[in-house]
Specification:
Helix content is 32%, strand content 20%. Among the domains are: 76-173 and 264-305, Periplasmic binding protein-like II (D-Maltodextrin-Binding Protein, domain 2, 3-Layer(aba) Sandwich), CATH 3.40.190.10; 176-257, Periplasmic binding protein-like II (D-Maltodextrin-Binding Protein, domain 2, 3-Layer(aba) Sandwich), CATH 3.40.190.10. The strands form 4 sheets. Strands 1-11-10-12-9-13 form a 6-stranded mixed β-sheet. The longest helix has 16 residues, at 2-17. By secondary structure, the chain is α/β, with parallel strands linked by helices. The protein is elongated. Strand 10 (196-200), helix 7 and strand 11 (215-219) form a beta-alpha-beta unit. The protein starts with a helix and ends in a 17-residue tail after the last helix. The chain has 11 helices and 14 strands. The chain binds glutamic acid. Glutamic acid binds next to helix 7 and strand 12. Glutamic acid is lined by residues 136, 154-156, 200, 203-205, 239-240, 243, 264.
């Protein structure tokens, strides 16, 4: 009996030295929100004042592509060639599009392969590219400051953005949908009217959904939204089907629901005033479409979205 009591005391002692977390944190304690999460109350003003006559997806016609390693003198491409590497702004948080492979540490994905094709066209070597990780909100400032040569990061071409940066032709046609926890009962964007939705700040997704949900919270990265969904802090995530397919692949207890309710035409972002680089990138994208590279890159990354569609048709304004 005495021995038993002693054993009990020792056990208690062990407990007070290292209590299990569930004994310390009451179950009702709210989980912390991701850093920089904020509630968005109304449609952002950035959607106001778009040029009325803008034909957003019509880009500049490419000339014949110069041979790799022979960029025209004085061109933006020649400056990149002199530096010895292309600097591309990409994502590291969107599985399938731009993400860090946790085994190799390499950044990979559909967008990353498009950036590599641009580097290959300049240098003849797709490895001559330096990736700078940018959030959705950092894309335009990074182009404007010249910190990157191009942005290849699920970036929708819009008239509003065309005031600040230029775009290539459309290299991928995405559309916004909704991601929910399995068996949530939400079947599409119409079901969000009395629900909470999570979006990334600086994305078109935010403006597209803010007036269709009861509350909208914005966070820096889409993976922050996934954590909030898993913790029950949001009812849904709404963004491009490409990004949602990546999140759904990372969490089998989620489903992408409802039809696409927007058109998100992805373009390569280029700083304003670099027409030669826009035409060059368009030449690279033309070649990728005709020589099968586009289809191969789709097949490498995007089959969770279904079989490869035809690549987007180029549209030019001059
Ligand atoms: N395509 C949308 C945009 O350009 C969403 C992409 C993202 O947030 O990564 O804003």
């Amino acid at each position: 009996m005495r021995r038993l009591a002693l054993a009990a005391v020792m056990l208690l002692g062990a407990c007070s030295a290292g209590p299990a977390p569930s004994q310390v944190v009451p179950r009702s304690a709210p989980a912390p929100q991701p850093a920089n999460a904020s509630t968005v109350s109304a449609a952002p003003s950035s959607s106001a004042g778009a040029p009325p006559s803008c034909d957003a997806t019509a880009s500049l016609r490419p000339g014949p592509l110069p041979q790799a390693g022979q960029m025209p003198e004085g061109s933006t491409m020649a400056k990149i060639a002199q530096r010895g590497r292309l600097i591309a702004g990409v994502d590291q948080n969107s599985f399938l599009m731009g993400f860090r492979n946790s085994f190799t540490g390499e950044i990979e994905g559909f967008d990353v392969d498009v950036a590599r094709q641009i580097a290959k066209a300049v240098f003849g070597d797709e490895k001559k590219v330096q990736f700078k990780v940018v959030t959705a909100a950092e894309r335009i400032p990074m182009l404007q400051s010249g910190a990157v040569d191009v942005v290849v990061r699920t970036m929708t071409i819009t008239c509003d953005r065309l005031k600040d940066v230029d775009f290539s032709q459309v290299y991928y046609q995405a559309g916004q949908r909704v991601l929910v926890r399995r068996n949530s009962g939400i079947t599409g964007v119409e079901g969000l009217a009395d629900k909470r939705v999570c979006v990334a700040s600086g994305s078109t997704s935010l403006g597209n959904v803010v007036n269709r949900a009861k509350t909208t919270v914005s966070v820096p990265n889409w993976t922050d939204c996934l954590v909030m969904l898993q913790q029950g802090q949001t009812d849904a995530i709404s963004t491009d089907d490409t990004i949602l397919a990546g999140l759904a692949a990372q969490d089998p207890y989620t489903d992408v629901v409802g039809a696409r309710f927007t058109d998100e035409s992805y373009g390569v972002g280029v700083p304003k005033g670099q027409e030669d680089l826009v035409r060059f990138v368009n030449g690279v994208l033309e070649r990728m479409r005709t020589d099968g590279t586009w289809r191969a890159i789709y097949g490498r990354w995007l089959t969770p979205l279904g079989p490869a569609p035809a690549p987007p048709v180029a549209r030019y304004r001059d």
